């Protein structure tokens, strides 16, 4: 973070970047007073006018031109936005920021310029799979009751300057290694609605399964360690959830050193077409074997 170069722009309308280190940007207090002033304003239009005076950066990399095609080098980080408008059940974003400290992948967390939101930085393993990492993170955050801004899937996404005296720094975060590819687009849309409908209910089978997968992934535990386990877990998810179990199978498989997205996808299709007798109890059985419940 201290030596990582990102691109800085004079404001959101500027197209000419200059190089700055991520560390210097996050510790810059030059516009502190303007941010504090914005947070006192009630009129949204007045606040928007002042925000346009603030500089901004592309947290995910150094750019020659604005837009994904102008990427020179990825920073290795993805910036996640948690907005109040998308999370009406959240009202204390200082508390949200502090809760994010418990996630070992978080490198930085702070209030947004308005104060009605939080943004955080997470190091990702495969820089060329920025969007795939975002999709996996979206599921992980939904699993803890948070909707993240879909615009963060854009590697060239701008981050407007903000100030937070209680910002959280972690110089030794765990690199996030989960990726997920949604195929086809129609399936993705259906799954997204399903997650939004069920993730708040901790007592559903769906939520229990996602909670177990999340615990396993966050702990680096591979519950699909042997082929027998992988096969049975895939069958159980296919029988219980149908097509919706596909993304669960991918997430459950990703800690295995030989995980391959296309192979995993093809295998799940076989499970869907086969007539295997494994139930969701088989999934819970293997999770318990690894001390996860």
What features would you describe in this structure?
- The structure is a single chain.
- This protein is an alpha+beta fold and 293 residues long.
- The protein folds into two domains: 5-169, no CATH class; 185-289, no CATH class.
- 40% of the residues lie in helices and 14% in strands.
- It is built from eleven helices and ten strands.
- It has helices spanning 22-26, 32-38, 44-51, 93-100, 130-143, 185-198, 205-219, 227-241, 245-253, 261-273, 280-289, and strands at 5-9, 18-21, 56-58, 61-63, 71-74, 77-83, 108-111, 117-123, 158-160, 168-169.
- Strands 2-1-3-9 form a four-stranded antiparallel β-sheet. A four-stranded antiparallel β-sheet has the order 6-8-7-10, covered by helices on one side. The chain has a two-stranded antiparallel sheet with strand order 4-5.
- α8 runs antiparallel to α11.
- The longest helix has 15 residues, at 205-219.
- The protein is elongated and about 65 Å long.
- 34% of the residues are buried.
- Mean pLDDT is 86; it is low at 183-202.
